[in-house]
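Justification of computing resources. Each target in the renewal requires a structure prediction run like the one illustrated here; the chain below, 414 residues long, is used simply to show the kind of job we budget for.
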Amino acid sequence: MFSENGRKVKIAVVGLGGRGRGWVETFLKMKDADVIGICDIREDRIQETLKIYQELGVTCDVMTTTDYNELYQNPEIEAVVNATSWQVHHRVTIAALEAGKHVGLEVGGANSVQECWDMVRAAERSGKFCMPMANVCYGREEMTLINMTRKGMFGQVVHCEGGYGHDRRPQIGWGDELGHYRQLNFTKRNGELYPMHAIGYISKILGINRGNRMLSLISVSSKAAGQHEWYLEHRPDTPFANQQINQGDIVNTVIRLANGETVMLTHDCTLPRPYSRSGRVQGTKGLWMEDKGQYYLEGAKAFEGEERACWHDFEEAMSEYEPKMWKEFRASGKSGTHGGMDYLVGRAFVDTLQKNAIPPVDVYDAALWTAITCLSEDSVSTGGFVAVPDFTNGRWMDRGEDVCTTAFSLDREV
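Resulting structure tokens:
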């Protein structure tokens, strides 16, 4: 699985901020991947990325450009990893698919449901895959949870929670100088801006798009106070100190599913807090809670001879139910950022290219997960439930053989 001895794939990366440069480095460290094209609208980021090649001692012809359409005309490039800003995410992806390139889509929300449909249609017409680079799907904890739920450890899963709790006030507040897209989005929008971290592995647990689907959602936003106070303290003499911030400090989104489960996502980036993805999986036989780092199974012994509800360290569960992929990964000596998740999703991407296979997460997942953003904006603005489109057009009921069967699959035993 991690031998890196397969056919060498040729990849381009569009968008060379932190995530884009991270993908360049991740792929360049693989023996069977070359990054032969890089693109960003900022020349300084291109030059910064070229230093990675030098630092790693990689010598290959690499095309550099500030125009992604120019990059897509290169016939040697078979796949593109899109790490551009949320505003242009989908149009960059659609253009790549229409140019006959496979796409790895970095995390980010959609501007409209229409562009999600356009992305689906472009993938279907071109026959090329669009794989969300949702690295949390390959986290050790998250894959262990997928394993446990498939073994029925939590019984029937009734409710899941997840989110993005990350104090991003400095990144947002200095976005104009850093060239970071978050600033504009937090200023102008109000909704669940970052759903993919949580909804990815939850979708696998609940079979979303593969036997289950989202029906509707409702989002509620708090007032916007945290970022404004940050501006007053850190940038009082700039126009930002008096600028209106639309994005609420806390946005909660509840999603109803066809099979009866509920999901709650929480977006929390403009108040002081430690990092958390706020995970929770609860079923008829027990539950797991990320922030406690613990889980509970019905009938667990608290004291010798006495039965009562008792939390257990989730590390114990991981030692027993850790997926085969993670055992092999740790034994391989390989490493990667975000605790190894980036390497694993990168390997899944390369493996899919090499085998011309169905990706473990696909364009229907990409459309659905990113559509949560614009749908939640609609809900916040109207104060009610909004319907969630079925991007599979009914195929969610029975995907048949249209699922990933490689070693990196998230749809079978992990």
